[in-house]
Structures are given as structure tokens and as C-alpha cells.
Design a protein that fits this description.
alpha/beta; six-stranded parallel beta sheet
């Protein structure tokens, strides 16, 4: 299973939440692969990359091709998800990269709606690409702060919902892939 940190912003809360999801997957006996958009090769951003993908993008493409499921953790920037996440999706081979792939979402934002708009927009895009969108989502509002152990601060119910989402997504992936 692949966890995608949906921003290339250094030190982002999104990355920390994605790492918390990774820890929960490990706890469940799943061997996750962490995909961080901060690690995208700079040459991917040249205009010619649309026609001919740089060789340095091949490992990212391979991770998606080999994934049995994809959990996207995305922030909300200006009412949507980060441009780098859209660009990453655009760089993936069409349509086969996401076709039939179970995809889940965690939204992270400072505002009260917790990246609801970003997740809704991403859901439409991955469904267009033929993915199976997991219907359960969580929107971590007010930043979804984490303690040093990767647990959500504040409402205990919030932590339980986050863990239930991860557990449910694992079951969803297995129901499609097994």
C-alpha cells in the first residue's frame, strides 16, 4: 500500500499526518511505501516532461503501478489541493496508472472544513482515471495537530475516526485486490 504525502512543502503537517497513517498501517501488519512529493526530481517540471518523462520519474511511476492501494493525504491550498499533486497525477501514464486502484483520502487544513473541497476535487479526478474511491474519508480541521507519537491532539473521537479510516481502507483494498 502506498501513502502519498500530497504536497512538496517542507515541514508540512500533511507529511506528519501521512507518517501517522503509515505508523497505523505498520501496526495493522501492512508494509506501506511512503511517497513524498518533496522527492520529485526537478527535471520533471520542464515543459518537455509531458511528452517524454525523465528517467528519474520512473521509480515514482513504478511505485504507483505496483501499488495495491493508494492513500492520499492532502492539504487544502486556496480552496483546492496543491498544484504539485495535480501535476504528479498528470505525469502518471494515462489511463492505466490509476485504473482499478483503490484510493483513499485524508484531508488536512487549518480551516473548519479540513480540506473537504480538496478531497472532493481529487475524488472526481481519480474516478475519472478509473480508480475505486473509498467512500469513507476524514477531514482533519484546525490543522489536525499531532503529538510527538503521531496521535491526533484534542478530541479522542478524532483519533478513533482516523484509525477507523485506516483500518477500513485496508479492508477496502483487500476486498478489491484479493
Amino acid at each position: 500500500m502506498v501513502i502519498l504525502s500530497g504536497t512538496n512543502r517542507s515541514g508540512s503537517l500533511t507529511r506528519r499526518v501521512a507518517k501517522a497513517a503509515e505508523a497505523k498501517l505498520v501496526e495493522l501488519g501492512v508494509k506501506p511505501i511512503f511517497l513524498d512529493l518533496q522527492e520529485l526530481p526537478p527535471e520533471i517540471f520542464t515543459p518537455g516532461a509531458y511528452l517524454e518523462k525523465p528517467a528519474s520519474f520512473a521509480p515514482f511511476q513504478r511505485i504507483i503501478f505496483e501499488a495495491d492501494g493508494l492513500l492520499i493525504v492532502t492539504p487544502e491550498y486556496n480552496g483546492s489541493f496543491p498544484g504539485v499533486l495535480k501535476y504528479f497525477i498528470d505525469m502518471l501514464k494515462f489511463p492505466e496508472s490509476l485504473k482499478g486502484l483503490p484510493v483513499g483520502f485524508v484531508g488536512v487544513a487549518a480551516g473548519h472544513f479540513g480540506a473537504l473541497r480538496a478531497v472532493e476535487q481529487l475524488t472526481a479526478i481519480v474516478q475519472y482515471r478509473g480508480a475505486h474511491a473509498f467512500g469513507q474519508r476524514i477531514f482533519l480541521h484546525d490543522g489536525g495537530s499531532l503529538n510527538p507519537n503521531g496521535k491526533l491532539l484534542g478530541n479522542h473521537e478524532y483519533q478513533l475516526r482516523f484509525e477507523a479510516l485506516i483500518e477500513g481502507f485496508v479492508k477496502f483494498v483487500r476486498s478489491i485486490r484479493d
